[in-house]
Amino acid sequence: MDYSSEKTSRWALLVILVCFFVVLLSNNVVFASHKVFIHLQSQNAVNVQTVHRTGYHFQPEKHWINDPNAPMYFNGVHHLFYQYNPNGSVWGNIVWAHSVSKDLVNWINLEPAIYPSKPFDQFGTWSGSATILPGNKPVILYTGIVDANQTQVQNYAVPANLSDPYLREWIKPDNNPLIVADGSINKTKFRDPTTAWMGKDGHWRIVMGSLRKHSRGLAIMYRSKDFMKWVKAKHPLHSTNGTGNWECPDFFPVALKGSNGVDEYGEEYKYVLKNSMDVTRFEYYTIGKYDTKKDRYVPDVGSIDSWKGLRFDYGNFYASKTFYDPSKNRRVIWGWSNESDIFPEDDNAKGWAGIQLIPRKVWLDPSGKQLVQWPVEELETLRTQKVQLSNKKLNNGEKVEVTGITPAQADVEVTFSFTSLDKAESFDPSWSDMYAQDVCGLKGADVQGGVGPFGLATLATENLEENTPVFFRIFKAQQNYKVLLCSDAKRSTLKFNETMYKVSFAGFVDVDLADKKLSLRSLIDNSVIESFGAGGKTCITSRVYPTLAINEKAHLFAFNNGTEPITIETLDAWSMGKAKIQY
Which residue ranges does the record assign to the Glycosyl hydrolase family 32 N-terminal domain (predicted)? Predict the structure, then answer.
């Protein structure tokens, strides 16, 4: 992924216009020249601040990280590579860092596997994927930057010693690059090769993200008989106008029934095409069919093929990558979450930036219309002290504190119920063209409603001066009900607004309300809250930095600010231990 291009949310663009270049750079906006922050790229962290560092999410000892790269399971070991700056806490000097694990929770950090060293990657070693070739031989495909103009080529690397259980050393053969863009391709928008798959014709296939004519996103396909000589297909696997550049594409099959993963590319499966939008800083995916003879992907009718399409996560989640895990017959997704403080100097001061989110199992919902995600089961080994609530009624304006655990580092699962939908607020038709987060911005947790808002107030002070509410709100539309899930960071910290990106993230939840129940799981880890609504149908990640609600001073509440009484049917909450990460 190219973090040096202009990437921004609409909010960040507004800040830039208002400030008129007072802020030229942030973790959400990075200009190609790097003039503002180049002096920070190689400023080694002397003191690493522990406040807001996560306890059970993956992050290195210090400095900047971004995209998860080439996750794979090989000979009993999970491998995670990721974009890393070994010399500073802002983007730059990127290498492929490498960590290994037996359980996706506890990790051993190794020496970087790939770093700029040859003409085909001397200006950068950017994102890519891993493929296990016949004979049980892993290979990495990655994007190399060959010049100061950011010309991008596709390279490969192989383990130096297959008998090494950790695959510590990787070799970049001299026959690189494998793929060079032809004249029809934008050479500066040509990156992030996917995991390869073999068709029934015995040819390998991969896809790269690209851009045509400033607005059409492309998934460019290449084929190869031997994995060494690649030929561009006459047409892309898929393309869409009006989306802007596609990066970090992912293309994989999902079974029609059940939650098991699939590692075959036959026409009996559904397929997922995901692209990361470097304009919006969000990802979206579609579900559809793959014509294996024509090598064409076609989204299903109703699967929105644009910025307003489905997302793996409606919050701070980007550059995701899936892999098939044969040890548990599942597909697992990794995602990166960057910091939400605006100025790079903030990250430089604390000595670190970026985390990898908890890996999630992913599968097709029984409706066939969307994916479902859930934290990998291994995470539950970190659960310690447990508390429970049941059959607790909350009237309008009431809250109950969840005590007996560590609220700053916790795992919470709760099921809410209600007796009637009669008080559901009307859904304003004008909201149909708005993003869910815009509706959440209008209808926050402190705005009284009918059925909702109800949910959890996380990383909260005792009197809620600081808190990040994660909540449901139900609306009555013309023909059905709409369920909104919000993770609202507006009051997450008392730190000045101009130094912090405090946004209301939200997504609609496609759920049947016949049983009048809604479930929520939130993983709370000091500066990150990952939430899973309705069993993982809608997921939202927020990054927050409270000034008061930290460590033992943090509180956790369940609340209801709707006129319809809500019952906490069950609430299970655990303190979470620390993951063991060997640096």
Answer: 57-375
